[in-house]
Amino acid sequence: MSSLSTPATGGSEPLLLLLDPVARQTDGESVRIAKDVLCGGADVKVVYPESSSELDRVLSHRGRRRPVVIGSDLALQRVLQALHRHRELGTDPVGMVPVGRAEELAAARALGVPGEPVPAARAVLSGAPRKLDLLVDDGGGVALGGVRIAGAGARRLIGRPGGWRSLWAKLAAAEQGNALTVEATEQDSRIRVEADGRLLADVHRPVRLVQVSLPCGASDGSGVMEVVVRGPGALVRARAASVSVVGRGFGYEVDGRPVGPVRARTWTVHPAAWGLLLPAA
Predict the structure, then answer these.
(1) Same domain, 81 and 49
(2) Which end of the chain is more exposed for a tag (fewer CB within 10 A), N or C?
(3) Segment 188-241, tens digit of pLDDT
(4) Is residue 252 in some structural domain?
(5) Mind spelling out the 3-state secondary structure of the chain?
(6) Domain-located, residue 71
(7) Mean pLDDT of the residues in the chain
(8) Which of the listed residues 132, 155, 172 is the one where a domain comes to its end?
(9) Of 56, 62, 50, nearest to 13 (Cα)?
(10) Looking at residue 96, which CATH number applies to its domain?
(11) Is residue 223 one of the residues assigned to a domain?
(12) Domain co-membership, 186 together with 119
């Protein structure tokens, strides 16, 4: 891991700039622009953590520095995962400058992060923290946008060659379960789904798809999630604070990243669990 620091030149809080190594390969110009803007307005320490232990170390020794991510949704999720693991998720607001392909930045867009490097960096320097909900599972994992379980009849390609473009994404997947690295065909669709104790699906009927997401990009502060269960000729919707899924073995996707297989998993909404620096307006 390498790092560098720049002296403070503005009135902003000191920053710890966490640069996903792949971001420089994806769009080095956007990374350079974002760094110039941030370094021109705050005391910035730039680090390039290349392992889980390095990320943990720099976050635990950041002092008063606010974490700022330059990279994709998965890079942000990786940092939130580490902060949650060390029970420091709500200590400081987190900033983000999104860099990556459009499909890798869907959560950032939904949360209101500016898509261009200059306005995103300015939001880090002069924006306001907004408290957001977070999905947390009983295995210690966190989800920014949502969870997807595909059953019979819903083939999906996950973990395909080149699908993980970030080292941080691979590390995050390894922490939450065994990553599926082959094409997943139809998995056992006999699962039981409960939302706040209400039965939405049972093992007697096949389930084609279960989707769990936070409404309004996790920004409404309601402390509830939206649950959709699709089966043959049936669609069930619910809003709940907790959802549990039990089966003989099922894989799932968190923010598009594969996890599992597991036999049971429960997701719970943690209201206003973390803060994101967004444009003040």
Answers:
(1) yes
(2) C
(3) 578 999 999 999 999 888 899 999 998 865 555 678 999 999 988 889 999 999
(4) yes
(5) CCEEEECCCCCCCCEEEEECHHHHHHHHHHHHHHHHHHHHHCCEEEECCCCHHHHHHHHHCCCCCEEEEEECHHHHHHHHHHHHHCCCCCCCCEEEEECCCHHHCHHHHHHCCCCCHHHHHHHHHHCEEEEEEEEEECCCCEECCEEEEECCCCCECCCCCCCCCCHHHHHHHHHHCCCCCCCECCCCCCEEEEECCEEEECCCCCCCEEEEECHHHHCCCCCCEEEEEEECCEEEEEEECEEEEEEEEEEEEECCEEEEEEEEEEEEEEEEEEEEEECCC
(6) yes
(7) 83
(8) 132
(9) 62
(10) 3.40.50.10330
(11) yes
(12) no
Q: In the prediction, which pLDDT does 97 show? A: 97
Residues 61 and 149 in one domain: no
Query: Residue 260: which domain range?
Result: 142-272
- What are 65-95's pLDDT values in tens digits? 999 999 999 999 999 999 999 999 988 999 9
Q: Same domain, yes or no, for 163 and 82? A: no
How many percent of the chain have pLDDT more than 90?
A: 59
How far is Cα 188 from Cα 207, in angstroms, rounded to an integer? 9
Average pLDDT in the 8-29 region? 83
Q: Which of 79, 114, 132 is the last residue of a domain?
A: 132
Q: What number is the average pLDDT over the span 117-136?
A: 94
pTM of the model: 0.81
